Amino acid sequence: MNTSYLDHPLRLDGRGHVATIEADDHVRDMVYQVLFTSPGERVNRPDFGCGLLQLVFEPNSDALATATQFLVHGSLQRWLADVIQVDRVDIANEDGQLIVDVVYTRLDTGQRQQDLFFSPAGGS
């Protein structure tokens, strides 16, 4: 069965219809939403997200990278435990941009995925 999902962020496709995506991209979009949503940003779910963008402004250090890895891993497990198993999270901070490397296994297919996520430079 071929299921399609609404694209995130919501947009219109070339035909003027709401854009849709396949399951792999949908799971990636869900991971992105957890990473780059700040707690308090969602009215009906104020504890959703991990606050990753706020860390762009912290001094770069090994301790911060380790703490961020735990924060991201824990947030993904909390919010997406019914969708993925988080296998590995690596964090890099280059020129004020956080680079998050997430390796996870989709629970519905058993397929292992690796995705890179980049914060906007300067956290904006």
Q: Could you explain the architecture of this structure?
A:
- By secondary structure, the protein is an alpha+beta fold.
- The chain has a single domain, classed as Nuclear Transport Factor 2, Chain: A (Roll), CATH 3.10.450.
- It has 2 helices and 5 strands, in the order ββααβββ.
- A 3-stranded antiparallel sheet has the order 3-4-5, with helices on one face. Strands 1-2 form a two-stranded antiparallel sheet.
- Helix 1 crosses helix 2.
- The chain starts with a strand and ends in a 6-residue tail after the last strand.
- The model has no long low-confidence stretch (mean pLDDT 85).
Give a brief rundown of this model.
The chain is of the alpha+beta class and 124 residues long. It is built from 2 helices and 5 strands.
Topology:
Blueprint: E1 5-6, E2 20-21, H1 23-36, H2 62-80, E3 84-94, E4 97-106, E5 112-118
Q: Could you tell me the radius of gyration in angstroms? A: 15 Å
Percent of residues in beta strands:
25-35%
Topology as a string of helices (H) and strands (E): EEHHEEE
Give unreliable regions as ranges. none
- Into how many domains do the coordinates divide? 1
Top keywords for this entry?
124 residues, two-stranded antiparallel ribbon, 3-stranded antiparallel beta sheet, Nuclear Transport Factor 2, Chain: A, single chain, globular, alpha+beta
